[in-house]
Amino acid sequence: MVARITSDVSSAFRRILRPGSVLVYVSLFAICIICLVPVVWTVSSSLKTREELYTATPTLIPKQPTLLNYTWMLTREDMSRLPLNMWNSLKVTMGAVIIQCIAATLAGYAFARLEFRGRDLIFYLLIILMFIPRAGGLMALYEEMDFLHLRNSHLGLALLFPSAISVALFVMRQNFLGIPREIEEAAIVDGASTPQLFWHVDLPFVTGGIAVVAIWEYIYVWGEYLTTLTMIDFPELETVSLAVTKLQGWSAHFTSTLLAGYGTESAAYVVAMAPVVLVFILLQRWFVRGLTEGIVKM
Amino acid sequence: MAQLNTQRVDEVRSRGAGAVFNQIAREIVGLRSQAWGNRWGYVFIAPAVILYLVFQAWPILRGLFMAFSDYRWLVKATHGLVGFNGLANWVEMFTDPTFWKSFTISLRFSLMFLPITLILSLFAAVMISKVRNSVAAGAFRVIAYMPVILPISISMLLWVKLYDPQLGYLNTLLQNLGVQNVPNWLGSPGSALYAMVLPTVWARFGSWVLLFLIGIYSINREIYEAALVDGANGWQQFWSVTLPLLKPIFALVLVTGSGILSATEESMVLFQGTTGGPAEAALTTGVYAYRVAFIHGDMRMGYAATMSLFLGLVNMLITFAIFKTLRTERA
């Protein structure tokens, strides 16, 4: 038994040490380190006290980890608006996700399954805009949102973001096209109306597609920066991705001698990116599905 | 009949803008002979179409008009259609030294970003495709893709922390290696633009890795086996099998990547606002247009729209050239 394990291990090592494999693994580990170092360094800095941050030889792993940076950022409401910003992000993101899922699912069904006058024409008109350069999109949006009184409004953002619907529409249309027609036929014979068909027969088959659309929209809206910056004037309305850009140099003045701005800011960055990183790690197979279904199709 | 139609939609779309325009004309001509069909269809598409018309189509059309008008947000008299000034914005743009400076910066930035990202992501994808263990390959894919899903502002801020001249990890490493005068990466005009390339590559190369991987995984294993029988080594396989078969992916990657010409957010987060960094060394055209439209003076949105449209047109030309050279069908 032991002999078998050792021989397994040694053969595994030999396989890894084959010239081709060594190159593969070494270069992949190098790439992973490049990908991870910025994140790891920030997480590590967020766990350090002032003293440890300013030490002459800082280490990647904190020697005496502390959560004080986090408690400072999350509880000092007189100085940091982080909890409020997180709440704003959550509101905007959830609103956008729900709106986009509803709109894309309904339209995807119509373009895949229903026949009505001008259907294909409308579909082409929806996709032709992808080929037109968006010149003053942001400037025109500023004017329009101001006119609609949707600037400085979370509702405005939650309506604006899901309007970039092309990819979601393709994904949903593709999902509905994948359902065999025979499944609908029995229900049609029973005299089901179009909404009944959609709700009871087809919808249960596309929950996976809806999940893909929801996750992509969630990641996009949570991280949106430029449009939010343009539409939001007041700090108490800012989403977290926008608010963290304004922390630099500011928190340094307020922190106690125990903490440093470098540490508290790092803590804020970690809090701001945690929701997307967690969702990504937990639900990563949906991302690849979304990529293959939506992006490549484009 | 319906099935056939939907297939045609996909086929036309893949042939690009010209084919779509053509098809639109044909659809309009045939519209009156079509039956009304199931009118529930209009109800179902209504939310998506309304959102699209209000927040996508209108801003694009209005923006196109703005590019030919002297629209200043803070001067009410220039609002609406009154501001139309023909090509005056364009004349001003072509004689504006700051615009040319910013456009050069955008070009230099793109010309550094594209080859680095292309080589790095292709290399990573080929390496990941060589990993047989599916768990390990999955882990590598997740790690390479992770920077892509981070909010763009956070990605840049992580690098601000790394670049920090006093406390950052980069300079700590350099000092450990014995470098005496560590550079102030973001703070000096000489290095600011280069310091912007690295985080941008970091934040974006993962999506290209996945695209290349999808391409590589879809290449039939038998082709490699045939190449192996012919005595091709790893490098020859890559050069004569993988690369040619990845042509459509290259086109896709380059087309999405050419959008980097309008990079705005990277500079605005790294250098805190529209300053464009030390001595405006990282003032891309995107940042300059944003500054003109939203920060400076009368908020000259018309002139900013002109600059954005110019970037968009250059981008269209690049896309066109990519499709012509790579001769691929996918748009």
Describe the protein in words.
The complex is a heterodimer of chains A (298) and B (331). Chain A has 298 residues and is mostly helical. Chain A has 2 domains: 63 residues, no CATH class; 165 residues, MetI-like (MetI-like fold, Orthogonal Bundle). Chain A is built from 16 helices and no strands. The radius of gyration of chain A is 25 Å and the shape is globular. The relative contact order of chain A is 0.13. The mean pLDDT of chain A is 85. Chain B is mainly alpha-helical and 331 residues long. Chain B has a single domain, classed as MetI-like fold, CATH 1.10.3720.10. Chain B contains 15 helices and no strands. In chain B, helix 7 packs across helix 9 and helix 14 runs antiparallel to helix 15. Chain B is flat. The mean pLDDT of chain B is 87. Classes of the chains: A mainly alpha (298), B mainly alpha (331). At the A-B interface, helix 2, helix 5, helix 6, helix 7 and helix 9 of A face helix 1, helix 2, helix 3, helix 5 and helix 6 of B.
